[in-house]
Each structure stands twice: as structure tokens, then as C-alpha cells.
Specification:
single chain, mainly alpha
Length: about 200
């Protein structure tokens, strides 16, 4: 059931972006059409994971990912909410949180089963935070490369924009990572206290 819901939600987003791409292309608005095409690709990622791999993320992560895509691609780029100033910073904090949750999901899928009861709460904290910060750094490298090689203006504020984005990514990831580390510590304490 969960897998079907992921497919339906991702499929609806891809369809919405495909309609926008057709609309803006037919009205010769190439920037908005290219954002919508990017939306099709990004929205298809959960579809591809659900259909072709065994690596599946839980429904809340996928839903927050799709909400993030709506916020960044549709509201931010197509409707122009990035002009508000704070919207980009807000979305970077949200993306840091999503990436940290993704790190926790990856840890639980690949490491938790083999780690037994002795996993360190610090490891969970650092792993989730590391995934979050890495995602932010890779995104900023993409923005920088696009500006340098393709003449785009993704880093509108230069170094200041990059640093604010990275701090926002880290802040969002830090909140989730702290929560995950504390939760792990309490679970271990409760388990050892009962044994």
C-alpha cells in the first residue's frame, strides 16, 4: 500500500510538471519550461526507486521531498517566491532536515541490523549530520559549476549566498541529527536498564 501511494504521489507531481512544461514551452517561456522539465526528472526519482530498486524510503520522507519540490520548483522558480529573500534560506533548512532523515533511513536500512544494541548515539548523530552537510555541499558545487560553465546565475549573492545556504542546510540537518542521537541514546539506555 505504501509503495502504491509513493507511486501515485510521485506520478501526480510528474504529470503536473509535464503539463506545466508543455504550457510554458507553448508560450515560449523557456526558463519556466526548463524548470518544469527538471521537475519531471526530480519527481521521477521516487518512482524509479519504488519501481526498480529495493531501496525505498518511508512515506513521510517521500512526501516531504515532494513538498520540497513544490516549494523550490513551482513556488520558488516558476511563481517567483525566491524573490521574497527568505524563501531560499527556508528551503535550504528544510532540505537539510530531509537529507538528515534520509541519512537516518539509510543507517537503519544498512547498518542498524548488523550493529546490534551497541551502536553509538554519536555515530547516528554524525552519520545523519554528515549526509545532510554532504548534500548541501554537493548542491552548492552544482550551483557554482552551472554558473561557471553555463553562464547561469544560481549563486545570485556569490559567496554570501553560498555560506547562508550551507549554514541553513547544516542548521536543519543539525536539528534532526540531534533528535536522532538523543532518541538512540534513550533507546539504548532503556534497553540496558531493562536487561
Amino acid at each position: 500500500m505504501r509503495n502504491k501511494l509513493v507511486i501515485v504521489l510521485s506520478g501526480l507531481y510528474v504529470l503536473f510538471m509535464a503539463c506545466l512544461a508543455f504550457y510554458y514551452y507553448s508560450h515560449q517561456e523557456s526558463f519556466k519550461a526548463s524548470v518544469a522539465i527538471g521537475g519531471i526528472v526530480c519527481g521521477a526519482i521516487p518512482l524509479g526507486l519504488a519501481a526498480f530498486t529495493r531501496l525505498q524510503f518511508n512515506l513521510p520522507i517521500v512526501m516531504f521531498y515532494l513538498i520540497f519540490l513544490v516549494g523550490s520548483q513551482y513556488l520558488g522558480s516558476i511563481l517567483g517566491w525566491y524573490g521574497l529573500g527568505w524563501w531560499d534560506t527556508f528551503l535550504h533548512a528544510i532540505s537539510g532536515m530531509i537529507l538528515a532523515f534520509t541519512g537516518i533511513a539509510l543507517y537503519e536500512r544498512f547498518a542498524h541490523r548488523n550493529a546490534g544494541d551497541e551502536i553509538s548515539a554519536w555515530f547516528v548523530f554524525l552519520f545523519a549530520l554528515g549526509i545532510s552537510v554532504l548534500g548541501g555541499v554537493l548542491w552548492e558545487a552544482y550551483e557554482f559549476s552551472s554558473d561557471q560553465f553555463f553562464g547561469m546565475t544560481l549563486q545570485g549573492g556569490g559567496n554570501k549566498d553560498t555560506m547562508i545556504d550551507l549554514i541553513s542546510d547544516t542548521g536543519g540537518g543539525l536539528l534532526v541529527s540531534l533528535g536522532a542521537g538523543i532518541r538512540t541514546k534513550f533507546k539504548l539506555h532503556r534497553k540496558h536498564g531493562n536487561s
